Amino acid sequence: MAVMLKSLQEISRLRQAGRIVAETYEALRPYVVPGMNTVELDKIAEDFIRSKGATPVYKGYGARPARSGYPAIPAFPATICVAINDVICHGFPGAQQYLQEGDIIGIDVGVRYNGWVGDSCVTFAVGEVDSEACALLDAAKRCMELGIEQARSGNRLGDIGAAIQMYAESHGFSTVRELCGHGVGRSIHEDPTYSHVGPAKIGLKLRPGMVFTVEPMLNAGKPDIRVHADQWTVSTADGSRSAQFEHTIAITDGEPEILTQL
Ligand code: MF3
Ligand code: CO
């Protein structure tokens, strides 16, 4: 598959989808508190998205039959992906899962509006969190911002990963390798796919009209991952906590445009 460059009109459609993603976080934010149930959060997100005439992208996505050596993967069952503490990403909301004071929770939201997709992730602190969690959240957000700063015409995908990896490791955190940034368009996952680590100056050269995510995941401990038996939930292999921030961005002639913010 090739990287599809988006026209200005297509980017304006992607902007509308991205705006609904950003608004969904504003709808969720007051409910990200101790005692809240994650299936309830999922319902708030789904109701909000549908009230805007959009649809959740993840719900029903990604089913695959078993193939030699690999188990079947069920469709993702929910509107939001939930990642509490040592979960890195792609966790399911759970009827028995309640937020507790001191947790960190990553909430990933994807919507489709008029055929175009927006994809974002925010990690929230639940009530008061300890100093390591604060530092991890700050660093993960900063890594996303530094990655986005590198997303300029003429730079390469490796420049994004290098900026992220450098900042994460210099703050005592590690960067997940296996889960990647990806192109976004009519589909949630398009080319290019790239890892949030360096080296700089390698990889695809960025050009105006490219639209993709910057979505670093930082672990407090080692970078290694573990995939759960549900085939979706990814957590840290060492049980350390993990935090993620993600925006969908467009490459322009100048500053990158963040499509999933208000
Ligand atoms: N932002 C995540 C990703 O790009 C969310 C995907 S959830 C899935 O992988 F259900 F679409 F897989
Ligand atoms: Co994504």
Architecture overview:
The structure is a single chain. The protein has helices at 8-28, 38-51, 131-149, 157-170; strands at residues 55-56, 80-84, 87-89, 104-113, 116-125, 174-175, 181-183, 190-194, 211-214, 217-219, 225-227, 234-236, 242-244, 247-250, 257-258. It has 262 residues and is α+β, with helices and mostly antiparallel strands. The strands form five sheets. Strands 1, 2, 4 and 5 form a four-stranded antiparallel beta sheet that branches. Strand 7 (181-183) and strand 8 form a beta hairpin. The mean pLDDT is 98. Bound molecules: 2-amino-4-trifluoromethylsulfanyl-butyric acid and cobalt (II) ion. Residues 58, 61-62, 76, 81, 90, 108, 119, 121, 182, 188, 215, 246 line the site of 2-amino-4-trifluoromethylsulfanyl-butyric acid. Cobalt (II) ion binds at residues 119, 182, 213, 215, 246.
Ends: how far apart?
31 Å
Q: Supply Rg.
A: 17 Å
CATH superfamily: Creatinase/methionine aminopeptidase superfamily
Supply the number of helical segments.
4
Bound molecules: 2-amino-4-trifluoromethylsulfanyl-butyric acid, cobalt (II) ion
Note the run of SSEs as H and E: HHEEEEEHHEEEEEEEEEE
CATH architecture: Alpha-Beta Complex
Enzyme class: hydrolase
Protein name: Methionine aminopeptidase
EC number: 3.4.11.18
Subunit structure: Monomer.
